[in-house]
Design goal:
single chain; 190 residues; alpha+beta; four-stranded antiparallel sheet; three-stranded antiparallel sheet; 4 helices; 23% strand; elongated
Length: 190
Amino acid sequence: MPGSPTPSERVAVDKEAKAKEDEEQAALPYKWTQTIKDVDISIEISANLRGKDLDVKLTKTKLYVAIKGQAPIIDGDLPHSILVDESTWTLEPTPSGKDLSIHLDKSNKLEWWPHVITSAPRIDVSKIQPENSQLSDLDGETRSMVEKMMFDQRQKEMGRPTSDEQKKADILKKFQEQHPEMDFSNAKMG
């Protein structure tokens, strides 16, 4: 069995995966960003289009976006449900035309979406580095739970100990340093 990749190999693989992911996402007819609580989609359209020229349908589990009389820009199932009443769409002028901005409010505020619709290429959610500002509007307890979940998820991906396992190892190490006379060579972890 081959050994696990070296850190530099892992960086190269990650870089390659990220480049492929960026390329796939850039090829989509829309741009999207997310926080732990919501998803924002923006679609560039021509300046002469108005709200009545658009056909946008948001349901709990589906998204449909089209310019009337044309093939849909987005048409598919959402990976997770949304709060329809909290989700909106607006038209905003840009220097080169207009932006159709769609705001989806996630039903579950504790999960990252791998894509906007299930037929689109996925992103690797374990690589998401949450903005602290996005976590700062969660209350302290929820925030620390989310940060711990995300840390543990990343550690697992990398085959490293989770925060609890790390804590046990640190406590044991400290204890060993304080009690050099004791033999811990057979101590079982976990």
